[in-house]
Amino acid sequence: MKNAVHKYLLRERLKSCLSFLKTETPHDRYLLFLRGNFLVFIGYIIATIETHSAIYYGLTDLTYNKTFFISSCVLLLTMIFTLITYVTKIRYVWYELAIFIAYLSTFLAAFCIWVFWLGEMRFLGILNGFTAVTIVLSYTNALQSLSMSISTLVCYYSVVWYSIKIAGQPGSLERETFFALCLIPAFILISVAAYYMNKRRRDLKRARNGLQILYNELSTANNRLVNEQHLTEIEMNLANEIQSAIFPRKVPEISDWDIAFVTKPYGAVSGDFYDFYSKGDSLKGVSLFDVSGHGVAAALITILAKPVIYTYFNNSGSSDLGDVLEYANSDLFDQLEEVNLYITGLLLRMKDNNVEYVNAGHPDILWYQQSEKKVSVIGDSSDSFKGHPIGITQNKKKYISLKFSVNKGDYLVLYSDGLIESRNDEGYQFGIPRLSDAFLSFSGDTAESLLDHIVNSLDSFAGDTRQGDDITIIVARKT
Length: 479
Hints:
single chain; alpha+beta; rod-shaped
């Protein structure tokens, strides 16, 4: 039973070893090994130069021919190993192990011959061995470094013993043994350094792999966000098209008023909405409303609220204009309360030269009397006629309407708060005073020319500062 278990464990260990040998090596390992080949090649050249120097100064009986022969063989084998490494890319662990063993065998064979031929300068051989172990420090792990160190010391002592005891070369075996033993601590330190360098490489590799995983996750998340942003842009463009289809694109063909308007959404869609009510070639009314906030939520409310106000206005007949807003508030209150939004706005009804006006918490209408070159705000002295915004309360507080008369050539300007609250790069608002100044500096005689003059004044004031809200301006000139 014990033998069967032992055989089973031995077989599993063998399978594990074979599996490990067939494991693919990472690409950076191949680069390290290739660099190690190059460093070994340089190390052999250094050893050759040192040996030639010793021959030149008469420090050894070794000849140039012998040095050239052994160095040529070693350098040629190193070049062959380097080429094999470059071609095979060290794809598997057993490739690396086989080439390392071949390198070590070549090194030890050349080392033994070198030490024997150096004679009394044989200690130069152990220094070259020490150099070789140090050169490959950046590649080898602790086990590889220790195996090179131990095998180098064993070969050195064996050759020294053979040279002195058998071949009869001059020298003291005790002294050479002492020198070799003195190198043991250095070889051990090199092996420890190889261990920590290899450990640090593994740590850096794990950190790099972690960063790569994080980068991949961030790239995936970024791609997902880009796709979602693309879908959002498509949806916003669709919402813009729906708004454009619902809102008037041009002024109705009328003869009693000259009207021009412009709307500049803060984003792809607007929270402002407007309408013109006409019958035949006569203008019956104008409306301008502003949903609090901006973006998709405000835009959806505009699509919901515009037809409600349109229906109540057309069905109002000659009843008080404030009833239109009261009915609209009653219909829209529940929906607005759920989304925590409200609507400010104003509504005008025209009949001949008479205008009826009701305001739901919106900026005042400006009246430009061209004959007197005078700009005034339409309202009462206490401003009490203004009602609350739609969606704020369900109280039965009535909206109060104002009635006034206009003369031919007079202008009425309706606007959303985005106009007067626009800021320049110093943080100042455009405000009603600057809007009034635009009227006073105006010299045209059409609604379109006054609208262009106001827009140019705003652009000149704001400069490159981006608008902070939706802007809608309606200019109506009595003809």
